């Protein structure tokens, strides 16, 4: 028969139009960059690298500089709350954290509230159901926290809320509340949020999403430590002023009693 045998090694010929299109695409992809584009690309990478390196090279001021975890004369506290009551609008203690003056954790416990938890407030508190399954009873945590803060300077932000949740009291002269310190107040004399104080005075962003009580307690402690000298001086000045006012009242009372007695005597004679 006169049929031709096909050569298997012979490559099929491409359509001329397809070959021309592929050639144009190859030319565009392999087109060399100009000197300006190359320089811009290199500088861009160098800039990105330098920014990354600068971010990494700056240490977080909230990181403890000491590994000492002892109980110091100054302690910072922060608590996270969960919602109880039928509507979940009543706050109950869900977690307690205490750090020493270096920012090292000396106590950190989840708390199982007496009432049933309706709202874990996870977006803010960071507390989830599994955290409270093996949490300690309120009375146990309350007792331990009371022992640790007794007779010590207590630092924190809006401490009245934390102490209320713990059902504890603390000597007013030993409280250092960053929400009440005058230099930390706004122009209207109102307190600022801890995250705003941290950003303004420490250059650190906190509470981006779920709150971390360890981080919050460290921020409050660092705010106090950096302003300790002025803070303590203002407390002493205020204490002296109160003492003077007290003495004036005590001196004034005997005179008032003496005048009153003399008036009564005169009235009796007449």
How would you describe this protein?
By secondary structure, the protein is of the alpha/beta class. Helix content is 49%, strand content 14%. It has helices spanning 16-29, 35-57, 122-125, 129-133, 138-149, 159-166, 194-202, 213-226, 228-269, and strands spanning 74-84, 90-99, 105-112, 136-137, 153-156, 175-177. It has a six-stranded mixed β-sheet, sandwiched between helices. The radius of gyration is 35 Å and the shape is elongated.
Primary descriptors:
six-stranded mixed β-sheet; 6 strands; alpha/beta; 270 residues; single chain
Q: What topology emerges from the helices and strands here?
A:
Layout lengths: L15 H14 L5 H23 L16 E11 L5 E10 L5 E8 L9 H4 L3 H5 L2 E2 H12 L3 E4 L2 H8 L8 E3 L16 H9 L10 H14 L1 H42 L1
Parallel strand pairs: 1-5, 3-4, 5-6
Antiparallel strand pairs: 1-2, 2-3
Strand arrangement within the widest β-sheet reads 4-3-2-1-5-6
Content-based structural category? alpha/beta
Average the pLDDT over all residues and give the rounded result: 84
Q: What best-fitting shape do the alpha-carbon axes yield? A: elongated
Low-confidence stretches: 50-54
Distance separating the two termini: 163 Å
How many separate helices? 9
Proportion of residues in helical segments: 40-55%
Instruction: Give the total of beta strands.
Output: 6
Strand content: 5-15%
Helix/strand order, N-terminal first = HHEEEHHEHEHEHHH
Evaluate the radius of gyration: 35 Å
Largest sheet: 6 strands, mixed
Structure summarized in a few sentences:
With 270 residues, the protein is an alpha/beta fold.
């Amino acid at each position: 028969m006169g049929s031709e045998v096909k050569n298997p090694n012979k490559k099929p010929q491409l359509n001329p139009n397809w070959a021309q299109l592929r050639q144009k695409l190859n030319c565009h992809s392999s087109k060399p960059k100009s000197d300006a584009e190359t320089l811009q690309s290199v500088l861009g990478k160098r800039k990105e690298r330098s920014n990354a390196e600068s971010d990494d090279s700056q240490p977080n001021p909230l990181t403890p500089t000491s590994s000492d975890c002892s109980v110091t004369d100054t302690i910072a506290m922060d608590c996270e709350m969960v919602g109880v009551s039928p509507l979940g609008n009543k706050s109950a203690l869900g977690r307690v954290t205490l750090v020493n003056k270096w920012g090292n954790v000396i106590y950190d416990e989840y708390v199982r509230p007496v009432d049933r938890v309706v709202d874990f407030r996870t977006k803010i508190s960071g507390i989830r159901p599994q955290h409270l399954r093996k949490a300690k009873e309120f009375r146990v945590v309350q007792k331990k926290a009371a022992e640790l803060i007794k007779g010590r300077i207590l630092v924190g932000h809006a401490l009245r809320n934390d102490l209320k949740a713990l059902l504890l009291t603390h000597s007013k002269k030993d409280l250092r509340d960053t929400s009440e310190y005058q230099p930390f107040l706004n122009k209207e004399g109102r307190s600022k949020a801890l995250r705003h104080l941290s950003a303004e005075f420490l250059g650190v962003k906190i509470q981006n999403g779920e709150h971390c009580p360890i981080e919050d307690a460290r921020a409050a402690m660092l705010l106090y430590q950096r302003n300790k000298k002025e803070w303590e001086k203002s407390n002493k000045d205020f204490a002296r002023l109160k003492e003077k006012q007290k003495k004036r009242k005590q001196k004034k009372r005997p005179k008032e009693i003496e005048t009153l007695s003399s008036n009564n005597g005169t009235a009796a004679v007449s």
